[in-house]
User: What shape does this take?
Amino acid sequence: MKRLLVVTFAFALAVGVITAATTAATGGKAESAGRRAEAAKPKLPALPAEVRNRKRWIIGVKCDVPPFGYINVKGENAGFDVEIAHWFARYAFGKANRVAFVCAPTPAREPLLTTGRADLVISTFTYTRDRDTRIDFSRAYYKATGRLLVKNNSSISSISDLAGKTIATTSGSIYDRWVRKCFTNATLSVFDNLTNARLAFDQGRADTLMWDDAGLVPLAAADRNSKLTNDTFLALPYGIGIKQGNVAMKRWVDSRLALMKKRDTFMQILRNNVPKRFVAGFSKNILRPKNNFAYAPAGAPAAETVCP
Amino acid sequence: MPLLFLPDWVEPVARYMFKVGLPATLKVSAIALTTSTLIGVTLGTLLTIHFFPSRALIRTYIEVWRGLPIIVTLFLVYFAAPQISPTLEFGPLTAGTITLTLWGSAQIAEATRGAVQSIPREQHEAASALGFGWTGRHLYVILPQALRRLIPPLVSLLVGIILNTTLIQVIGGAELLETAERSVERLASPTPPEFTPGDIKAFEIYGGVMVMFFLITFPLTRLAAYLERRLV
Amino acid sequence: MTLALTYDLWGFLSENWEALLRGLGRTIEVSAIAVIGSFLIGLVLGAARAHRVPVVSQLATIYVEVIRNTPILVQIFFLYFGLGQFESTRFDVFTVAWLSITIWGGAFNTENFRAGFEAVPYRFREAGLALGFSRLATFFNVTLPIGGRIALPSSINTYIAVVKNTALLYVIAYEELTTTAFQIQALTLETLEAFTLIGIVYLILVWSLSAGIRVLESHLALPEAR
Assistant: This one.
């Protein structure tokens, strides 16, 4: 009896070990095959040391701007920007979960980088030349424009109707500066996160919500009482915020973004985060193999200083 | 949580608040209270020494951190301090803890001063007659009596600290109020890509947060009142 | 970016003084309304609680305990966004601004006045009644003057707290001093200048109020306290 038990146990153990070894081997083989294939191409820039040593990314994302960065019902970070962060974790460490998220509402994005509290900020972060003087940006990865969200019965049909109206937006954003500069006869109501700005608009405390199309389209789609005006203004390409002077980081990020563009990864991310009926529209705004866009050339005036 | 009378959007919100928000609030409060007490009692006792420079310094510390609105102190610690020196960068929760410690220690210092000065002179004289030096006198005779009188204000201060942790929300820290606020926005169909920003439930959520804080602090306020009667 | 090279308080002030002054004006406006409001609420409800007026004192107790045990920030959000969900209770920013601070101050002041009135020795009130004053007249001629003075120090602390709490109106975008300064520094990134400046302004405001009221207190103090 005892011998039978010993034999069975040894057999089970052997089976277990062999299975484990096989899966590891095949997994490893696939990985090393991949690595060999990678190595055959010119080597991609190496991961900056501080991230490598920490074995995790710390990335700032939006926590209240669906579909780019928000908290889902399970309490986890989710969204387009968040998924880019997970891809970076995969590229850096092979595991998508090697990233810690920090909520980065608009006014906190730059301080997170300048004080080193986050490695990167992927937070609907529009490139502006002014911001470029304090932090660095990766290449553009999303082409947003500004839109106006108004109630269905609103008298506002374009930005030329803003005189005497109240505009809600987030503090420190492009719109904040642009309205202060160009629409001095409108009242600005700034809140430090999009949720409160949206609440203010919903409750009629502001006549319109001015923000990126990416954030406003889902709101308009879900709310039957509001709609977007037809005009678009301010070309606002998003970039990934990087601490100023961190050349190694910028090289790494740009190279991986180029890789994702080539493999059309952004399309996959888009499909994961945006309802089907919006995918076609948004697909024109993301990096794709044939879709190129970049920041405004250095000589052009900064977008938020140009009044319509 | 099978609370049958609550609509089903409550569950994920409550779970997020209790898992992430509440521990953060309690942690910040506990640390702020402990450090405020340590710093405050020390400063308050030192304040009773008749030495002008130290009294002036401590008095300035107290009047500044009590005089500033806590939110301004918070902005100074979180946004402005990094501009003085890159080493002074803090996360939102840390900045909140530091702010509450500055405020709390100023309150405690003032209360300690009052408590120590309310101990009759005879105690000091008796202790000196028994051979105690200044430190011994304060450590073994004065402070034990003064600390008894400090307990009701300490409990009140704890209530104040807990309520003021909500200010961390303003700088994006994930404490109880902020986790509730984030939930105001995102209540709806759980699985992307069919994402729909949900209806706003601001009234229920802010009301709920008020109830939660009430449940935490009301017993403490009652305790402070009870201790006030018993100990003083 | 070392401090010495870029800290330019005077420059910041001279560039933005109009906006900041407007902000300060609004701070003072809301503070004034809230102080007066808290005084009246505290007086009336404190008296009701001290004299155990039925119904009113129970309701007042609920009001006081709820306000004192919930964060003022949440009260502001509740009044602005929470009640704002319904058309009938959708108040504008200014109303929510002074209302929220007044409600908060009134609760604390109710406790102050209640303690003050209850501290009036019973023999004084007895004397008043013996002299033929009605209960209401006794209150106005005996309890109120004496109890009010006893309550003065704690009321003063509440009024100063009211002034400081106007800074929280930042969260509903009411353009008082803190909001204005925050918005300026969000655009120009002169963070340190902005916040140290308003820090100084608040300290001046609070300290001078404190000092001024202590002078008032010494004039109004009861004979035995002098």
In short: Residues 10-47 of chain B form the longest helix (38 residues). The two ends of chain B are 43 Å apart (CA to CA). Chain B has one domain: 10-231. Chain B has a mean pLDDT of 82.
